[in-house]
């Protein structure tokens, strides 16, 4: 299987210690980038509408204090409840220099993680990520669901307080930064003891997510026995009620034991197909094709949804 594309070098910077206020630290970093770094648009990730609107206002005020020594900026928020017409503004070009020969203008987008996987914005050169997301948590005692700011899922460095604050794209391609970040996260996770993280996670689904991510990372590093142990722990867990957990655990076992892959691939296929999770059926189909396992004919080689 061949996926076309280009890779570009990426520089990643971290804070030396946890920031007491990650929003203020993120705003400060964006302003510093605009004042000191070469041209290129900036993407800042925050957790929700209130933080985003507050950060947009603060960024505008701080850059206005810089006077004519810096170029003009256009600061755009992006979150799911924003009207479509305002969401489209993120694709507008950066403002031109205020005067001939003056500092170049820059576009700054402050977004939830909708901009991480759902779309690609041309011209992004700098990405600032404080490493937090809003996570829905259910409290069984009070029977209430609430949204909490938590460290980014499955990133042990962020969860332990080493918050990534700036990643500079050297060739303006957001996809390259995301690929590099995924590979780096996988390597860090493979060499991290996840027991302290598991002890801090109360949500069963997130615990299983972490175990699966750790299993995949161990598998990528060639440690099949460890990956098998972790995947079996997921399958044996009483909380394994979500289809995705069962499917991904079986696929991890299939990849770890290619010679015995068929029963695991077929088990993953049956689980996803019975639940009509066609995106997971497609994932199973791609793994089956890679491992040379034949699936039932009704969905075709990639497990596409039947007509």
Question: Total strand count, please?
Answer: 8
Q: What letter string, H or E per element, gives the SSE order?
A: EHEHEHEHEEEHEHHHHHHH
Question: What's the N-to-C terminus distance?
Answer: 26 Å
Q: What fraction, in percent, of the residue positions are helical?
A: 40-55%
How does the overall form come out from the CA principal axes? elongated
Strand sequence of the main sheet, in spatial order? 1-8-5-2-4-3
Structural class: alpha/beta
Report strand %. 15-25%
- Please work out how many helical segments DSSP would assign: 12
Structural commentary:
The chain has helices at residues 22-36, 49-64, 84-87, 114-117, 156-159, 174-190, 195-200, 204-220, 224-236, 243-256, 261-274, 278-291, and strands at 10-14, 41-45, 73-78, 106-111, 124-128, 132-139, 144-151, 164-169. The chain is α/β, with parallel strands linked by helices and 307 residues long. The chain has a six-stranded mixed sheet with strand order 1-8-5-2-4-3, sandwiched between helices. It is elongated, with a radius of gyration of 22 Å.
